[in-house]
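Our consortium's second objective concerns turning raw sequence data into structural hypotheses that experimental partners can test. To show how far this objective has progressed, the report includes one record in full. It was chosen at random from the queue rather than selected for favorable results. The single chain below, 175 residues long, was entered without modification.
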Amino acid sequence: MDTRSRAANWTGTAVGLCAIMAMGTPVTAIAAERMITVGAAETVRIYPGGAVFKARVDTGATTSSINARKIKRFKRGGKRWVRFEVVGKQGQNIAMERPVVRTVRIKRFGQESKRRAVVRIGICMGGYYKDAQVTLQDRSRREYPVLIGRRYMTGAILVDPGREYLVKPNCPGRK
């Protein structure tokens, strides 16, 4: 290949790359338009049951978690399940039973590691609903009984960390 052919080939490649990069911008803008913007704290609705909770939106956390107490593991049909209680925004105790998706080991500095059950719970924030993996833990000393992690938010939610309570849970048809 002579110098002129190489230059033409390179120019064609450069123009093609520029076109691809330029096309990426509108795709990103379209994706962002479909996402909802939430604040650092929001109100969420949890399913089953539809109870409302205050939630901290945490982009640093991978998995969401919920304040659970009276956690009891048991077997049903040969599979691992867990029974627990959550306390809704109005102070009501809500008993739940869910199959265990997995168990995680949480390493704590200067303390023994803890094992936590992970279950699937429906979460509604704004108009966005997703069955999310949630760890069960005692969050009773925390201001927010629910922590929303990245796995729930990815591809659907943008976070404005300087604002709070931008959306209300509105996911019709959920029970």
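The partners drew two points from this record. Residues 40 and 161 are 5 Å apart (CA to CA). The radius of gyration is 22 Å. Both points have been shared with the crystallography group to help prioritize constructs.
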